[in-house]
Amino acid sequence: MTTSNKILRNFSFLLGADLITKALGFISVIYLARVLTVEGFGKIEFAQAIIVYFVLLVNQGLDLWGVREIAKGQEKIKEIANNVLSIRFFLSLLAYGLLVIFVLLINKPWDVKQLILLYGLSIFTFSFTLNWFFQGIERMEFIALGQLMNQLLYVGGIFIVVKNSSYVFQVPLIKFIAAFFSLCLLAFLFFKLNGSFKLSLNPSAWKEIFKQSLPMGFSLIVVQIYYNLDTIMLGFIKGEKEVGWYNAAYKIVLIFIGFAGIFGNAVFPVLSRYYKESREKLQNIIRQSSRVTLFFGIPIATGICSFSREIIQIVYGSSYLRGSVALQILIWSVFTIYANVPFAFLLLASEKQKEYMYAVGLGALVNLTLNFILIPRYSLLGASIATITCEILVLSLILFYSRGLVKVPLSEYLAKGLVSSFLMGLTLYLLPFNLFLKVSIGALSYFIWMFIFRGVTRKEAQLAFQFLKGSN
User: Fold this and answer.
1) What is the reported pLDDT for 97?
2) Distant-in-sequence, close-in-space partners of 13: CB < 8 Å, separation ≥ 6
3) What is the pTM (predicted TM-score) of this model?
4) Distance between CA 338 and CA 356 in Å, rounded?
5) Quick check: is 419 in a domain?
6) Which domain holds residue 84?
């Protein structure tokens, strides 16, 4: 199987599962936003934003380290699995203990504290998550299966159990139960492939692992600072309603950002291998990846920014319309993240995790500073500006650190995408159709303009036409 086919196979499994899980997840978000009201929805989003940091304490970059080391060679696969799972088990005990202390210290109502502790149960299911293992051996179909099972159980439980705002405490319990059964399925597949798991305590091996994984773990933590800190600060400074409005917009953005993560996870094992074997193949993959991510990132940001108010109205209802201004700004994160994802994973694959850490670390510092300045005065608008400013800075730094590894004509790809997106937006502005029809026409007009400006080759256009013809 060729490299392109392997990446396409990995991406197809992850994308197929992600499309289904995101669709189901977004349906559940809409349902919860309407059933729990703005304040109730804000409470569960605030609780989940806090839990992310305690989950990252368990992660410590071990996921990325495990994928990279297994992808390089599977001679020590059992040893790697035992060490990673053992470390994360002990870290999960520490993380939940720290969470309890944190909850006792914060100045929040008891119902919010209960929600945080209940969502904290996910720390234990995460500690034994095995997606990294299957990603390393490029068995993406198992990851897809686990994601589907998890989301089906969660969404099914939400619709069956949660009927009004008084059921808010059942939401984290349903989430925990769904994750537990999904974990059981992946553990069964893990034991079939790996034979067994042995809880071990090996300080010398752990020290070497942490030397390589901690920069990646720190990077993940600071990335989450500028993904979640705004939610946490809005919750403490402005209250749960602002969190509800803001996260209603952010949930839409995260759907599209998730595709970049899927693409990066699919290509990461291949990048790790080719960094070791062939710089020419490495450069080709990065060029192709950049072209693909920018092709989709620019029009998504342009289209949603143009129709943010209509989208919020249709999805959540008029009570969430205050979130539309946040959506207009936050959606440009899709463009910046799509642009940087091939280069971010390139840095990690080429063992430049420290450079990646510096980029996201400075971004997080800027985000933290801007949040403190802007949120008290401008609320949702301030949080949105802080986030997109941080994303632009991180993109610039990642491109700077990648400049010696590959040469990619990003300005050419970017120019064609921006001009085509502008013309697409102009076309949609002049049309008197409803939103759903405009989306279809917009996608077609963007493709046509990209073809005219040679952002899409004749061969790619023919393949797209054959695909569409075959699907009818």
Assistant:
1) 95
2) 140, 141, 143, 144
3) 0.72
4) 16
5) no
6) 3-408
